[in-house]
Design brief:
The chain has 587 residues and is α+β, with helices and mostly antiparallel strands. It has 3 domains: 218 residues, no CATH class; 90 residues, no CATH class; 206 residues, no CATH class. It is 29% helix and 25% strand. The chain has 13 helices and 21 strands. Helix 3 runs antiparallel to helix 4, helix 6 crosses helix 9 and helix 6 crosses helix 11. The longest helix has 28 residues. The radius of gyration is 44 Å and the shape is elongated.
Length: 587
Amino acid sequence: MIGDLETRRATLAPDSFDRASGTVDVTLSTGSPVRRAGYVERLAITPDAVTLAPRIPLLDSHRQSSITDIKGRVENVRFEAGRIVATLRVSDPIALDAIERGDVTGVSIGYRVDAWKDTRGANGERVREAVNWTLVEASLVPVPADPEALIRSQVMSESTAQPAENPAPVTAEALKMRADIREIAKRANLPAEWADAQIDTGGDIITARAAAFEELQKRSPAPIRTAAVGFSNEDPAIIRRRQADALAARMTGAAPSDEARPYMHFGLRDLARDYLQRAGVAGISTLSTEELLSRAMHGTSDFPALLTESGNRVLAQAYQAAQSPVKRIAAQRTAADFRPLSTLRLGEAGKLEKVGEHGEITSTTMGETKESYALETFGRMFALSRKSIINDDLNAFGRWAQIMGQAAAETEADLLVSLLTQSGGAGPVIQDGTRLFHADHGNLASTGAGLSEATLSAARLAMRTQKGLDGKSPIAVTPRFLLVHPNLETAAEKLLSAIQPLSAQDVNPFAGKLELLVEPRLPSVGWYVFADPAQSPVLEYAYLSSAPGPQMASRDGWEVLGREFRVYLDFGAGATDHRGAFRNPGA
């Protein structure tokens, strides 16, 4: 067993190792580039660039916190071509055993940079070369920063070495700084290599602390801190939003959100008291109901804004519920102001032409057409009376808000449907001087007829064979919607329903192809087929960009004792093109 151990030691021990004298030859540095934070560092390896400390200790992984960290000293430092080499005299028996076994092969140096030279590498990366530096210590390390800084397996030739010159002492301040950096690494549970890198960059204590903090931040996410806070300590805007949700839920009968549920039992009097208390009003407990509500309504609190916000929620719900299906066939946009909106439609460029022998490519032009319409403002007013406020009658307020939401939806639907029904169903005059639905446009049935497979097939064929603005290029419009009056709803459902055919002639070619839209404002006998507005828009509507949909505002009542509310809508609609629709006047 002992013989096997001796054989293994002889196999792994470096050739330059002498157990009796405790010496081994090493390469201290080759000046290999070392990547630092934001740059690459190099060491100039020449006698002119390097200064040696009077005594260079051999340390354990750059540790300097105790004399037990000293494992020996560095002797006979000299220069070979592109490298600094030396002899280590190791006094620690554990270190000697590790070197002899071949377990420790890495060497790292500690140094102080006295002068830098900054350049750029081939890839533009910043390179900092230490052109004047002092070697102050060497360490046995598991993994060296310089991959060639190793214990040598071959004895160095003295003839190739050059003695170092100009030794300079290592200051006590520098040694203390290195010890402090290692202490920072120890407390932060960072590896010795991290401390080596901080020392090698020549950073100070402040820089090392900042770097340690960054490493700790990367290592684990910041702890999540939670705190329980009451409603009184929250943002007033959040409180108002939750209370508005609760009021809207009470007015519509809808289920409240979890955040709004604590306020469901609050009446107008309770809400007024809450707002006055948070506004710092004194003597609230002595106020009558009317005085309480009057101060909340006309004072500095946000109570009026709460009523307006809850009213807007009810308004929006009713508005969405009353939407006309006609909006499905129209494209939507926004406008910055009330000036006329222009919709520019570009024509087709035709086909690519064959390039001639000499490579000439001919130019082409595109046709264009432009339609325009403008926004208009629509509005109504209503009042929440003093009596309703004192009696906490939210039903009246909620009902008014619902009516106004439905009225806004009705206004939009009437304007859109009027574009289809004006002039006996021919529609508005568009840019080419012809009505929207006209035989010249190829989108009007020559003879009115009811819904059937034949008439619907003719409508689809007319749309599929539409031509572009140049009058030649086919654009193959795809039908998407069938729009009818309620009188034709049942017939349309039968025509579009999927059936299980027993023979080829029983196959329904329109099953699953068209979506049925029913609008009671349309004529009772006519019907329309429309394309998807995203592909081929025919109608377009717009809102003012700052106020899409109906808006509610309020003020103190002047002509009535209470609160006045107004609902207004900035809306416009127009026809933009004829190619994405087909009309059959019906039988």
